[in-house]
Automatic annotation (TrEMBL):
Keyword Hydrolase set for record: no
Enzyme Commission code(s) on record: 2.1.1.-
GO terms (BP aspect): chromatin organization; methylation; rRNA processing
Lineage of the organism: Eukaryota, Viridiplantae, Streptophyta, Embryophyta, Tracheophyta
Pfam families from the UniProt entry: Methyltransf_8
Function: Probable methyltransferase required to silence rDNA.
GO CC annotation terms, alphabetical: nucleolus
Organism superkingdom: Eukaryota
Protein's name in the database: Ribosomal RNA-processing protein 8
UniProt xrefs under InterPro entries: RRP8, RRP8_N, SAM-dependent_MTases_sf
Enzyme class: transferase
Keywords: Chromatin regulator, Methyltransferase, Nucleus, Repressor, rRNA processing, S-adenosyl-L-methionine, Transcription, Transcription regulation, Transferase
Amino acid sequence: MGSEIRRGKAESSSPPPYPKRRKVEPSSNSKSQLGFLEKMRMRLSGGHFRMLNEKLYTCNGTEAFNLFKDDPQLFNVYHAGYQEQMLHWPQQPVNTIIKWLKSHSSSLTVADFGCGNATLARNVKNKVFSIDLVSNDPSVIACDMAHTPLESISIDVAVFCLSLMGTNYHNYLLEAKRVLKHSGWLLIAEVRSRFDPNNGGANPDEFCEAIEQLGLSLLSKDFSNKMFVMFYFKKTVRFHRTVALVRKEVP
């Protein structure tokens, strides 16, 4: 999942004057030309990324899965743009999650929902099920994240790192709850602007309350980073006991 980027005005595409030759060092104009061409390449790539990013936020999981299944190259375009954007972040949320996992037992089984290039799996000793819409990496499970092949109550830690996208992202959370063991962890990293109610974002307290309605208790949240926020939930046993009692009463 990367943050949304608004389109800016198009800049002039006129190339700079051809530089004069220097004996040793390339001229500053030559460097400027190379920088200009690189910026143009990045701008074109960024344009595709912005369009795909907007699409992923405004369609459901099934539509997104079919979009990338029909044209896998789009997935590569999206993640190239995502990685470019991450280069400008002073700290990446995946590293925060890696650090958290390393501070816990390596025996914990992890499900990384929206894994991208599976950075998490490559940097921890845990068994990690990397899940995304499509991938060239055979270790990644390609599927709609609302319907994974993981067994129920089989995962210790479910991770969403900038990947709660789409109009039905609540279905991804329900899927995470299904596969989590009792007392399993749910870690969510999201772009900070998505939780700024003063600028059209969600109210973080209401977001947490909604997840707690699924049977996950909020243990902590971290708003210290200027780019992203972290939420740490745990699946509650009490909730499952309540569900069991209710089921007994339903004919």
